[in-house]
């Protein structure tokens, strides 16, 4: 059974909901694709540091209090760290011997019917036109090892509320935030086998191809033939 949100979670969510409602207009679609009888992973593109809030707003209002994997340093930041700990979010100790702890914690939540929200790119997109980048394989590994569905949730508009790498929120005028959930990505033929590099990359590519196609539909534009790849191109220049 899913874990009900704590009293802190419920109480702290109310002012955040009010803040987002006052600063944004909801253009939400596809909530019927969010599973009600199983744990699942919601994956989204990453445009802005406001993305976790706009994604959480959509999921929470549709009955799915999210747990988001976030870098551990944020848990030590004033106020934000207090919120993350209170909301029972999951710290990621990148590049350390504790890096696997986040995956273990997430798998535990999934196996008891909770949902996890993740940004497969691992960081804000470096694509200069804000298209999704090539992603890491962590989501694929988690999904294939647990058997839970992966639900793509594309969003667009958070970058107008808080520009990429910006620190100043622009709540006036209210920004339209489009969030669209789609059917789970079909990974059935990849389940039950070895989690080798080729399998994980194939699953990851399917997830990101689906997500990019959904973003393209929201934007009414054509994405690049190949996603920006930080590994091949270095860090790249920050998206504007």
UniProtKB/TrEMBL annotation:
Name of the protein: 1-acyl-sn-glycerol-3-phosphate acyltransferases
Source organism: Demequina mangrovi
GO cellular component, one term: plasma membrane
Biological processes per GO annotation: phosphatidic acid biosynthetic process
Pfam families for the chain: Acyltransferase
Record domain Phospholipid/glycerol acyltransferase: where: 40-158
A Gene Ontology molecular function term of the record: 1-acylglycerol-3-phosphate O-acyltransferase activity
CDD domains assigned to the protein according to its UniProt record, in alphabetical order: LPLAT_AGPAT-like
Region (Disordered): 220-240
PANTHER family: 1-ACYL-SN-GLYCEROL-3-PHOSPHATE ACYLTRANSFERASE (PTHR10434), POSSIBLE ACYLTRANSFERASE (PTHR10434:SF55)
Record keywords, A-Z: Acyltransferase, Transferase
């Amino acid at each position: 059974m899913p874990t009900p949100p704590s009293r802190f979670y419920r109480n702290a969510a109310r002012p955040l909901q009010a803040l987002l409602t006052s600063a944004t207009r909801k253009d939400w679609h596809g909530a019927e694709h969010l599973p009600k009888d199983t744990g699942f992973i919601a994956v989204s593109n990453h445009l802005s540091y406001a993305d976790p809030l706009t994604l959480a707003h959509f999921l929470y209002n549709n009955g799915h209090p999210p747990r988001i994997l976030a870098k551990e340093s944020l848990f030590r930041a004033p106020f934000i760290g207090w919120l993350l700990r209170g909301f029972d979010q999951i710290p990621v100790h990148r590049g350390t011997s504790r890096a696997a702890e986040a995956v273990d914690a997430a798998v535990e939540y999934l196996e008891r019917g909770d949902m996890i929200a993740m940004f497969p790119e691992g960081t804000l997109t470096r694509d200069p036109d804000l298209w999704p980048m090539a992603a890491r394989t962590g989501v694929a590994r988690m999904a294939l090892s647990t058997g839970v569905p992966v639900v793509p949730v594309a969003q667009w508009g958070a970058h107008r509320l808080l520009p990429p790498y910006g620190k100043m929120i622009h709540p006036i005028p209210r920004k339209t935030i489009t969030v669209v959930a789609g059917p789970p990505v079909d990974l059935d033929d990849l389940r039950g086998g070895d989690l080798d590099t080729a399998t994980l990359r194939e699953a990851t590519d399917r997830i990101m191809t689906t997500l990019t196609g959904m973003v393209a539909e929201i934007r009414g534009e054509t994405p690049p033939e190949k996603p920006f790849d930080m590994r091949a191109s270095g860090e790249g220049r920050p998206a504007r």
